[in-house]
């Protein structure tokens, strides 16, 4: 049975609200910090047993086992740093910061203070991607050769981060998870149509060791929503479309015969693969709560820094092209 911990959420915006609802569902909602008093009044009415605070410092007067930082990314560093200084465990939404140096500093500070630091790489807890990893690890698709992801939508515009920083951390964390290494080279190209200097669309290519490759296509200037993820292996292929209502995970038993003069495609059909229906955020929070007093291995501070390294390489390439 999972020990009950009380968690304080910093930031009650749209995504912070998701954390609040989920923590309430699993019995771990303790407090909420937000600078908007009308939002706090609404929280108090909806969750009468939840403590509310207009400042982070006020929240430290009460004891919470851990904090979740769900504020805009530009504020993550200072808020997370202050929580770590109070020696409280924390989960910071992605991206952990907007600067690699700051991410490294938070990770180091957490280790010095013996604090568990986790980042909200939510898709690592998505049951479909966990299933894909199990299929890959079982060797059913052979050796991974290529992975690509399309994360597209219309709207959710930002001015403090471009679409690469807003959308791509999810997929970069998945690439690192499936390839089990960082890319050797990163090349990104894109356009800033709506706001000068803030890219709306980007395509980023990755080369990994062993002649393996991937690409991530992200855009918030797209006529329809698409979250497509494809893994191509030497003996089979996997496809998951998260934006579709039925959310199918498909396994294609397709491969290429290289014995003749020309490669020949071999296909033995396709099957739908079932997976758990647990909500990713609930799975993520349960993992955080269950492991924060021991050791966070998944989506931990080291993982956050690795994603930031790739993001910074992509950003430098994007700005230079």
Q: Determine the structural class based on helices, strands and strand pairing.
A: alpha/beta
- Name the helix and strand elements from N-terminus to C-terminus, one letter apiece: EHEHEHEHEHEHEHEEEEEEEHH
- Percent strand equals 25-35%
Distance between the termini: 53 Å
**Number of DSSP strand runs:** 14
Please estimate the helix content: 25-40%
Specify the overall morphology.
globular
Largest beta sheet, briefly? 8 strands, mixed
Low-confidence stretches: none
Strand order, main sheet: write it out: 8-9-10-7-11-12-13-14
Q: Would you tell me the overall average pLDDT?
A: 93
Total number of helical segments? 9
Radius of gyration: 21 Å
Structural commentary:
By secondary structure, the protein is α/β, with parallel strands linked by helices. Helix content is 34%, strand content 30%. It has helices at 14-25, 37-46, 56-59, 76-85, 100-112, 127-137, 163-179, 280-291, 301-319, and strands at 7-10, 29-33, 51-53, 66-69, 89-93, 117-120, 144-154, 185-191, 201-208, 212-219, 221-233, 237-241, 249-257, 264-273. It has an 8-stranded mixed beta sheet. Helix 4 (76-85) runs parallel beside helix 5 (100-112), helix 5 (100-112) runs antiparallel to helix 9 and helix 7 (163-179) packs across helix 9 (301-319). The radius of gyration is 21 Å and the shape is globular. The chain starts with 6 loop residues before the first strand and ends with a helix. The model has no long low-confidence stretch (mean pLDDT 93).
